[in-house]
Amino acid sequence: MLSTGEVYEDLGSDYYTRRRPERAKNRAVAQLKALGYEVTLQTPCPGPRT
Length: 50
Description:
Layout: H1 15-19, H2 21-34
């Protein structure tokens, strides 16, 4: 940044979740299982159209 003159741009707190959502999902499932939960995932139902 200092050597290139670029302005710093914060990528956001959810940067890695947006970048690799499958990995974030798997990590969340693994954490819940490690806490002793039984995890079942299902695709969300389509909501009402507006």
